[in-house]
Amino acid sequence: MSYNSILSMGEDKNGSLWIGTWGGGLNRYNPATETFTRYLPDLEDLASLSNGTIISIKGDSIWSMGDQ
Q: What is the value of pTM for the model shown?
């Protein structure tokens, strides 16, 4: 996990658990491999998260706070 302050959680159709944090980005837990993948903002990569605070995960949608 990238951060201790969890704001949102959701499970996708493949059984992965998505965890949104306050300032620590997005984490995906894969139960098959029992591993976490971290997704963090990267100013050099326009396809990355624009912000590290993930406030809501609903189905296939992930919402973050506005740019700080």
A: 0.82
